[in-house]
Design brief:
The chain is 58% helix and 5% strand. By secondary structure, the protein is mainly alpha-helical. Helix 1 packs antiparallel against helix 6 and helix 2 packs across helix 5.
Length: 578
């Protein structure tokens, strides 16, 4: 393959990102609010309009702030006198419903404009991934990586939603890019930029707290590679960068968000939220600092971090491979990754690994230690990406929060880059390899386009595609409430006077269906008439509970005798039972 000029690479990158923008924009137009958007949209608006951070503290504010910027130009009613704001402790779901659906606002207008900045963040992420790969590995790797990214069903699914997953991925790539620049040249400018980027990442999602051990590991190893005398110097400058991020980025941003959050309210909220937190010393410290002027801002960050940690440890009720559990499975993320990532990319990954193994000139047991050190020294960015992938995946696998592939999304850009490096490197040695690679890319792109606009429900061919993937796993992997507006259209087109609905998501059924809606109580046994059931609810009511699961189970087994009359989008089954 010939060398690629910067001009050609930049133009091609712009075209790829423009295509991705169109796919992300048009795919979300028919989607109703997903579950987490019900909390994140009003939270962001409350931060900007009220300067009060009582809602949704388990996520940092930056991404929610960005999503709320367009909403500030709309004439919206915020339910400041409603109990969900005045009395409830973190009443995010109730407030979300009240703000979006019950306060005289146009719900679809709010959701549309809140999502627009998210799509722009997706474009920024794509550009940043391209720049990262281009600066460290060249134009060919950058374009191959961006092609994989631009047609990734996972990024197309989550890139238009008001959630923190794309923001976390962006924060990770941004912080790593500037940290590697700092390691290579630890001058004043690079230290400051690394610190600022680290601070921005800390404001995107609490899972990026893993950047601390990640940066610590690669900093020490980089310094050790240069010589033992550099270790203390690099540790000192790394600590300085971290302090810059926390003191000059995270703390001031949080300070702006608690200006109108009454200290006594913050204290009482913190006390109630942490009532069941298991580590007493951390709980007491957080509570004691929550109403101290100046300190209470950074304490609110600490609160969110504790909440996120506790949720990861406790988990959620989840349907997976025919079973129901609250404690999760260690193999959840590997299985979901295998089923929800296009097969063509899995083949590219295996091909890259195989070609890398074949390129090894000596058996792996010959001079292993010396060769590993040499490889790390000459391929430090690749080594760094492998370290982060290992840290993030080990942490995710060991946790109990098994609710979506989106939780390991930050590792995807590095996986894409590493696979692209292997393919491009091998193409220099193997003539006409690019023909096979282009065929796999065509398959990859076709697999993505065939799923439009149902990217959230994407599964590869082994997973049964977007129509059958729910048999393996649901929640944000498949059914996050995105089809409620499509249900409204179906009900109107079919002149259904009454329909019982069991819905999971961020929409409000009454808002869309009006008097046609009746609540379906999943625990009340067999029903008659028209029934609309979210597939996530259906699978949870049919799955076999694991030992120790004591919540209601198998309450939808009676529907095994019936076939759905219709299907709305991908995620709502319609039954007509007489």
């Amino acid at each position: 393959m010939k060398n690629i000029s910067n001009r050609f690479a930049n133009i091609t990158a712009a075209i790829l990102l423009a295509l991705m923008f169109c796919m992300a924009f048009f795919s979300q137009l028919g989607d109703s609010a997903t579950m987490d958007e019900l909390a994140h949209i009003p939270a962001g608006y409350s931060y900007l309009s009220q300067k009060d951070f009582r809602i949704n503290p388990e996520h940092p504010p930056l991404i929610k702030d960005i999503s709320a910027v367009p909403l500030m130009f709309l004439d919206l009613n915020f339910p400041i006198d409603h109990s969900s704001w005045t009395n409830e402790v973190n009443g995010q779901w109730w407030l979300g419903n009240e703000f979006i659906y019950q306060s005289g606002n146009n719900a679809d207008e709010i959701i549309f404009w809140a999502r627009m900045p998210m799509i722009l963040l997706l474009m920024l992420l794509g550009w940043l991934i391209f720049k990262f790969a281009k600066d460290f590995f060249g134009n060919k790797v950058a374009l191959l990586t961006l092609t994989i990214f631009s047609f990734s069903p996972a990024f197309l699914a989550n890139g238009s939603l008001v959630t923190t997953d794309i923001g976390a991925t962006l924060g990770l790539v941004l912080a790593t890019y500037f940290w590697l620049k700092f390691l290579k040249s630890p001058v004043k400018k690079s230290i400051i930029l690394a610190g600022v980027a680290f601070g921005i990442a800390m404001l995107c999602k609490f899972s990026l707290i893993l950047l601390i051990p990640f940066f610590a590991i690669i900093t020490i190893i980089y310094a050790w590679m240069k010589g033992k005398k550099y270790i203390l110097k690099y540790i000192g400058t790394a600590l300085l960068a971290g302090i810059i991020g926390i003191i000059f980025i995270v703390w001031p941003i949080y300070q702006l968000h608690v200006i109108n959050y009454p200290p006594e309210r913050q204290l009482s909220d913190t006390s109630e939220i942490l009532a069941s937190f298991p580590v007493k010393i951390l709980k007491d410290l957080c509570i004691r600092m929550s109403d101290i002027p100046g300190i209470r801002a950074i304490d609110h960050y600490f609160l969110g971090l504790l909440m996120a940690t506790q949720r990861t440890a406790t988990g959620n009720t989840v349907y997976f491979l025919g079973t129901i559990s609250k404690t999760g499975w260690w193999f959840y993320f590997p299985v979901v990754y295998f089923l929800k990532i296009p097969l063509a990319f899995h083949i590219l990954t295996l091909l890259s690994l195989l070609l890398a193994a074949l390129a090894v000139s000596k058996p792996f047991w010959v001079n292993t230690s010396q060769r590993i050190k040499s490889w790390i020294r000459n391929h430090f960015p690749e080594f760094s990406m492998l370290v982060f992938i290992a840290i993030y995946w080990i942490t995710s696998i060991s946790g109990n929060l098994n609710i979506g592939i989106r939780h390991v999304l930050p590792t995807f850009p590095f996986i894409y880059i590493l696979v692209s490096i292997g393919i491009v490197s091998a193409s220099k040695r193997i003539k006409k390899l690019y023909i096979f690679v282009f065929a796999l890319l065509a398959w990859y792109i076709a697999s993505s386009l065939c799923c439009f606009p149902y990217y959230l429900s994407y599964f590869n061919e082994i997973g049964g595609g977007y129509k059958e993937g729910y048999k393996y796993v649901v929640d944000s992997n498949y059914d996050w409430g995105q089809d409620l507006k499509r249900l409204k259209t179906w009900v109107e087109e079919n002149n259904i006077e009454k329909i019982k609905v069991d819905y999971f998501g961020g929409g409000d059924v009454k808002y869309y269906l009006g008097d046609r809606y009746e609540r379906l109580d999943s625990q009340s046994g067999p029903q008659k008439g028209w029934l609309a059931i979210s597939i996530g609810q259906l699978q949870s009511g049919k799955g076999n509970p694991v030992p120790g699961f004591n919540d209601p189970a198998r309450y939808y087994e009676w529907l095994n005798e019936y076939q759905p009359e219709a299907r709305v989008g991908t995620s709502i089954f319609i039954y007509h039972i007489e």
